[in-house]
Write a sequence for this structure.
């Protein structure tokens, strides 16, 4: 079975400071990892993904994530937060062992609040 | 491309009524997913289709829920009869096998009184 854990319900950060949103995962095979963002009253939007290759993945809006196999983590980061980054962030995983499969398992979400 | 299109965006109905939610996936995508989002349970996968065929419906809460995909450009999620605990935002998402990431619609917010 595959699973994702987002240990923080909410993260608060001051604008201009770096931000980190944590995610750990569990899969049988190689993980396919994703981050999505959800703004109020909107659907989820794709930010970035890791399938293979470089452990540091760059995505939309200046976000990046680092894949760490030994720690089974895929934390989302941004060097300098903006107030407009305030949103709900979801980590998701798919098990690569099943040929990618199709079932994407989402975490419970982390609310990011960036304040002036 | 217009993206994944869902209708209605908002629906308010009374307990016992039938509810039908509709989804048009992105053209060329061959997988379609229905999710439900609530404050209590977060984002739950209800069912997904590959090439119009239901693959996994283990997330469908009970027999009151049914989903169909008669062709590659249209899917419905039906609740009959509806109950207040069905109140949630229902999302449809599609993907192509080649790219892997899901594209979500804007959701259908259902309120059952």
């Amino acid at each position: 079975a595959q699973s994702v854990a987002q240990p923080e319900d909410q993260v608060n950060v001051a604008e201009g400071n770096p931000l980190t949103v944590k995610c750990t995962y569990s899969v049988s095979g190689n993980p396919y990892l994703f981050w999505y963002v959800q703004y109020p009253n909107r659907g989820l939007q794709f930010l970035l993904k890791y399938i293979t290759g470089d452990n540091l993945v760059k995505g939309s809006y200046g976000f990046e994530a680092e894949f760490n196999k030994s720690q089974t983590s895929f934390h989302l980061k941004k060097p300098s937060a903006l107030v407009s980054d305030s949103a709900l962030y979801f980590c998701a995983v798919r098990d690569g062992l099943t040929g990618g499969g199709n079932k994407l398992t989402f975490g419970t979400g982390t609310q990011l609040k960036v304040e002036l | 491309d217009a993206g994944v299109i869902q209708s209605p965006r908002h629906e308010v109905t009374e307990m016992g009524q039938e509810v039908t939610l509709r989804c048009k996936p992105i053209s060329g995508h061959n997988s379609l997913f229905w999710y439900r989002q609530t404050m209590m349970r977060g984002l739950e996968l209800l069912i997904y289709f590959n090439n119009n065929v239901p693959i996994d419906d283990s997330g469908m809460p009970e027999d009151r829920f049914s989903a169909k995909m008669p062709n590659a450009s249209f899917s419905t999620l039906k609740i009959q009869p509806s109950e207040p605990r069905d109140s949630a935002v229902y999302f449809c998402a599609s993907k192509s096998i080649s790219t892997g990431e899901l594209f979500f619609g804007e959701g259908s917010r259902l309120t059952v009184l």
Notes: Chain A is about 0% helix and 50% strand.
